[in-house]
Amino acid sequence: MKLSLGFSPCPNDTFIFDALIHHKVDTEGLEFDVLYEDVETLNQRAFLGELAITKLSYHAYAYAVEDYVLLNAGSALGFGVGPLLICKDPELAAQLSKIDIQLPLADLKIGIPGKYTTANFLLGLAFPELENKQEIVFSAIEQALLDGTIDLGLIIHENRFTYESKGLHKIVDLGDYWEKATHSPIPLGGIVAKRDLSEETKHKIDRVIRRSVEFALKNPKSGIDFIRSHAQEMSETVMYNHIELYVNRFSVSLGDEGRSAIHTLFERAWALGVVPKTSKPLFL
Predict the structure, then answer these.
(1) CB proximity list for 156: less than 8 A, separation 6 or greater
(2) Is 157 among the catalytic positions?
(3) Per the residue annotation, which of 22, 23, 59, 157 is the catalytic one?
(4) pLDDT category, 140, cuts 50, 70, 90?
């Protein structure tokens, strides 16, 4: 059985899926037609129901939940893994990091990695006044700040490890904001499968992904050439810092703590009326 599979070229995703797509583990007869896209493109494809299995943002899952169900394996959750709000001007960074902000925030232009990213959802919780948003591919946000085309940047993925070396400054870690508010890990992205697949197939996909994650954690250098081929300008140190940050026990299985964190995210979003409610079960 061949299934379409979408995930990002970021090191955490290529690390997770290397063993699966290269048959280093038993795939129980499953074959995969792989598509590599940035997370916001994957979000949009999920809204259209284009892929049988896909990575997406947890924020976006709220808009795709009628067609997809969340798998237990492959997610990115954790502590200290949240998106960062950054800028070029150190004085602006210092002012914005204060609790009592005396600035006209609505005038500031902010680059975001996508409307439906969990990062943008968290930004809305922490800074609802920041409404002048421009969607930019996540990897281009740092340069947009350096070029002065935006005032603030919301960064995700490996940019956590590169912004300081480019002379940019952190305003707030939105993951830290979430952890203090909820005392739970931050749900960033998950792996979903089409609801219209058979229950047997969905559980088989989940088992195979878990097997792939476990293989990668036990053999972290096994997929280095594959990972590097999709992280073209990234040093090996940054690659593995990225992987260590985003691939953890929640990637193997959500468990009770992971599920609780996801429920908290959805309950807050539903309470604010920023995403549609659903009667569908969130989890496989």
Answers:
(1) 39, 83, 113, 117, 119, 138, 188
(2) yes
(3) 157
(4) very high
